[in-house]
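Student: Send me a single protein entry containing the residue sequence and its fold in token form, directly below this note:

Tutor:
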Amino acid sequence: MLKGIWKDPVWSKVIATGILAVIASFGTYIFGVWPEIGSAFSQAWSFTIASTSTPNWLLALMAIPCILLIFSVLVEIKGKISASEPTKTWKSYTRDNFLGLLWSWRYTGNKIYNLHSLCPQCEYQILPKDVSAFSAVPRYDYSCEDCGYSAGSFEGYPEDLLQKVQLKIQKGLRTGQWESRQQA
């Protein structure tokens, strides 16, 4: 039963936190830190209930919005700094030109999905049209219905072309060529 709970991501963290809390409590008891912790809480409580011209508890309450404002400004500054320095990872490689077409895709985990072809001139999605004269030899045409661009016809089924493009994407990722092809 413990093995099943330990493999659960939430319960394993709860158990690990409990173990660390017990170890920390035992360590503070051995090293005699509990009186100092109690003294710190006592001094904090005395400060909170003490009075100046304005009660300290009211000052602490009024400080909360100030602290939140400072925190939000720091988060905003950090966001602007990190936005100005974009880090390129292999998952940012989601578009490229192959076989006269612009291809776009996404990743789910480490797998490519939602791979589709676009017109390289106007980025209208191009769907394959069956133009084969014989059923034994499949041939599909890739032409844009919006601007008239034609990438030509390809022999084989559209799934075969998708697989070829997927292999080219994987090759680019494996060899590191994706970095130089980012602007495609």
The chain has a mean pLDDT of 86. DSSP finds five helices and six strands in the chain.
